[in-house]
User: Fold this.
Amino acid sequence: MLDVAVITDPAAAEVSLDPVRARLLAELAEPASATMLAARVGLPRQKVNYHLRELERHGLAELVEERRKGNVTERLLRATAGSYVISPSALAAVEPDPAREPDRLSARWLLALAARLVRDVGELITGAAQARKPVATFAIDGEVRFASAADRAAFAGELADAVTALVARYHDAAAEGGRRHRVVVAVHPTVPAQVPEADETDEKES
Assistant:
């Protein structure tokens, strides 16, 4: 099972977005049969079987074992990945294009960049898997707390200057056999984590 899989096929994307099938995919983190899943999700086995066939047909679930029980063959399936990301290429007609009106201060342009990142890395992963080779990538994920908007603007300016200088130092347009790499640097406000509401019992005890 892959850790993350990128869905590029529109039909597979539609299948994965169905609430029942998404629930079944979550349950299929470990191998299970239609009978086992029916008990967990509260649906008839025949209906679960139908959904499993659709997940399997679109490459979202895979057969891992068949067990013979009397006159019945029990099929155990597992999700092909622990989680899934839908590539913008699945909606090619309305796929975001960062080349349209680039604006470094636009949140929507940042979103278009992120969408392209998902699409490109997804394609790289697929190609690398077929060639049985790793993908050369690097990422940094961190957090900074700014004291003021002025500090944030100053940070962005210094960051842009540093990255521009670094790219200029290593970029070699004439390098024979060289390979282009895309550099994406983003700064955005942190989304606050959801804090679970206190249970009524806990409130009374406190």
Observations:
- The two ends are 44 Å apart (CA to CA).
- The chain has a mean pLDDT of 89.
- The longest strand covers residues 61-69.
